[in-house]
Amino acid sequence: MTTTHAGKRGLRVQVQRFGSFLSGMVMPNIGAFIAWGIITALFIPTGWAPNKSLAELVGPTITYLLPLLIGFTGGKLMHDVRGGVVGALATMGVIVGTEIPMFLGAMVMGPLGGFTIKKFDQLIEGKVKPGLEMLVNNFSVGIIGGLLMIGGFKLFGPLMTGLDDIMAAAVGAIVSAHLLPLASLFIEPAKILFLNNAINHGILSPLGLDQVSEAGKSVLFLLEANPGPGLGLLLAYSVFGSGAAKKTAPGAAFIQFIGGIHEIYFPYVLMKPVLLLAMIAGGMSGILTFVLFDVGLVAPASPGSIIAVLAMASRGSYVGLIAGILISASVTFVVSAVLLKTSKAKETSLEEATANVSAMKGKNSIASSLVSAESTMPLAEVEHIIFACDAGMGSSAMGASVLRNKINKAGLPIKVTNTSISQLPANAEFIITHQDLTERAMEKVPQAEHRSVENFLNANYYDNLVHEIETARNKIS
After folding, report:
1. Cβ–Cβ contacts within 10 Å for residue 196, how many?
2. SS3 readout for 42-91
3. pTM for the complete prediction?
4. N- to C-terminal Cα distance for the chain?
5. pLDDT value for 374
6. Alpha helices, DSSP H only, in 152-227?
7. What's the pLDDT tens digit per position in 85-113?
8. Strand order in the sheet with 415-420
9. Which residues are designated catalytic?
10. CB atoms < 10 A from the CB of 129, how many?
């Protein structure tokens, strides 16, 4: 592998890791955002069931609760519960020091608080006299958290307000200039590199929530979450694809459109990177339709399924919303069909996609060696298999479900679960990830047995894995 290729791969992994950290602060709290969105959609003056008393929940929730949850989670990611407490304290300073919902401030102050208390704990480790541990632990959190709270109030609050104003003004200028559809030029390629959660929950959601607090809805929630382009691509594969891709595409389309797991279509694009043009065309047409109809959501749609999108739609947005989804799916389908039928590249199976992706990306495929390599761990001893993905809620849950059913049918006493890469336990013994995320998982838990898949619906791979385990167990029985 050349130095240039190694550098590119390292940069991609670093970007993925940063994006995963951003989304990791928001994803665990999506339920709270949905609760706020439902209350907002129902009880504000322009909602479905206006109620002045219940509408009083809307303001404090978006001003205090949601940023504090993000700040606590960000701090906890850095240094467990102590980091979470200091992160929440630091975030409170930013909240009080501003007059707008401080999501961006929470995503800065939360990790900063966790990092600060972590460094303090490392500094005093082994130096506290016996009997004084609780006193030092409690007062260190109080003093450091209090100082960061003051700093957030006096310094970071005004700074974050200015940054938020600049970003909001930039988004407003793009919308006013009718250039928002061009966002697909960046969003669609970034999604394929597994930055979808970072884009949606790390960038678009905070800006969208600011717009909701002023206008009652935001189109920004739809830029990444629109399930239309993915549906169009998978339907095109269902009709014009071949081999395993054609057979699995209908099931993938259902999971993507209804279940909201967008990661399911990423391997289909990676098989033929030229299909990025179809995804971009579909994304742009959908956004243009949303803008023309002036539609928006009242909260993030997560997962990005048609059900979640319609549930979070603002009153009066349904016609334009459905139109945008259908148009984006249709455009993607047509462009994908043309590319699949006219492309001179030889159609490959999903099993061969790994090698092709390696050539197209200019890097060696870790997945190829991992899938074909012999296990470094005795398979007969495996008791727990973990699926890991960026957020720990989408593709990993789907893969775990498929394998769990096969494990149960085989009568094997093996537990199958899913989680995010950032939350992988240190004692994990057997980990399965998508090929583009395996390197990060190996860095997180290097001693575990790592396997890669390029398609989470690859039933043949799971059948082979179960057979491997059964064979290994039979040899020692």
Report:
1. 24
2. HHCCCCCCCCCCHHHHHHHHHHHHHHHHHHHHHHHHHHHHHHHHHHHHHH
3. 0.59
4. 43
5. 43
6. 157-176, 184-190, 196-197, 205-215, 221-225
7. 999 999 999 999 887 777 778 888 999 99
8. 415-420, 384-389, 430-434, 449-453
9. 389
10. 8
